[in-house]
Amino acid sequence: MQNLCKVKIEGFKSIAKTELSLNNLNIVIGANGSGKSNLIGVFRLLERVFSHNLQLFVASQPDRLLHHGRKVTPALIIDFVFEQNESYGFTLKAEQDRLFFEEERVKYNNNLWGRGYEGVIAVGHKESHFREFVFKSVNNPLSIHIFPKLENSKLYHFHDTSDSSPAKRTAHLSDNRFFRSDAGNLPAYLYWLKQKHPINYRHIVEHVRLVAPFFDDFILEPLRLDEEKIKLEWQQKGSDAYFDAYSLSDGTLRFICLATLLLQPTPPFLILLDEPELGLHPFAIRILAEMLEVASKDVQVLLATQSVTLLNHFSPKDVIIAENDGLKTQFRRLPENELSHWLGEFSLGELWEKNVLGGRP
Q1: Helices (H), 264-311
Q2: Cα–Cα distance between 119 and 125 in angstroms, integer?
Q3: Which one of 41, 219, 292, 301 has the fewest CB atoms closer than 10 angstroms to its CB?
Q4: Are the CB atoms for 161 and 253 separated by under 8 Å?
Q5: HSE of 316 in the Cβ direction (CA atoms, 13 Å)?
Q6: Alpha-carbon Rg of the chain, whole angstroms?
């Protein structure tokens, strides 16, 4: 697997300038307002760029994306660097009430497909030209090495557990090509897993049982009055009463979404999560940490957290500290060697609480 090994950011929200190396598992910690979510927001911007929705995303307010506004930062620069120093990046410049591409650039190396390339692919445009550049020539290595990986970087957000939550709604039975970022196709995706990937499905059920001992199994069948639709129903141990998603606690529903995401057979290239521990019991957080560790063996994970309990389950090499001095956000990796004398006596979470790590909780 060719990983995303570095992201370079300049002029985005609270981030004045940073060059951050990424591992398979990346846990970002820091105080409220430190800029943790802005790092993840870089990938939200990338998603809008690739979907040709940049102008809609900017929504006539470019200053909210630029570091201290356009008077201080007239342009933002982002580059995504892969192993073998292949990369994709862009510079977005403010003009009136919008951002436009001052340039969009790529780099790939010599390989089996012929010569490498490094340079600008387009200038002065409103929406990305990357897709067109990638697929205009046959066997372009960008179509294998970079584009599908960046396009398959997904931000997941399961915080909404209200009555109108996407995870609680009836889904179309065929909506199962991928697990949606808001869990809007949760019952349809679980039904597909049960039919086509029973081992993964059983793993999900077993993990849910660990954190919700009353849970027996999902009931996943097309609706009898509309066989193209499906809703999330489940059985409670020792009961024949009817239960659906509205009968689940907020924490249990969020955990089901997280287990489905992390234990699926076809996860995205890069999983992005912002405070996934929200509403979870400490034991559920422990199981979440184990699932994250396992998932990171096959995909990259980047998450922001404020949970001391979650941090306790990781090692210093996984952790990124976000700190804001009132003017800008800075990111740094933990100095693992310097912490060795502390870790024999304290957990990472305890060191964070004591402000030994910085990024005060």
Answers
A1: 282-295, 308-311
A2: 16
A3: 219
A4: yes
A5: 21
A6: 22
User: Concatenated DSSP letters for 330-344?
Assistant: EEEE--HHHHHHHHT
Instruction: Tell me which DSSP letter residue 134 carries.
Output: H
Q: What is the largest CA-CA distance in the chain?
A: 66
| pTM, 2 dp | 0.93
Q: Rounded to whole angstroms, how far apart are CA atoms 40 and 37?
A: 5
**Cα separation, 67 vs 76, whole angstroms:** 8
d(CA 34, CA 31): 5
Q: CB under 8 Å to 129, separation ≥6 — which residues?
A: 101, 104, 121, 122
Average pLDDT, the chain: 92
Contacts 24+ apart (CB under 8 A), 208-212: 208/252, 208/255, 208/256, 208/259, 210/283, 210/287, 211/252, 211/255, 211/280, 211/281, 211/283, 211/284, 211/287, 212/252, 212/255
Helix, strand or coil, per DSSP, at residue 146? coil
Helix axes 282-295, 250-263, angle to 10 degrees: 10
Question: pLDDT tens across 27-79, in order?
Answer: 999 999 999 999 999 999 999 999 999 999 998 889 999 999 999 999 999 99
Nearest to 186 by CA among 197, 200, 198, 176: 176
| Measured CA angle at 90 (ends 84, 92), to 5 deg | 160
Residue 350 has pLDDT above 80, yes or no: yes
The token pair at 292 is 């994250």
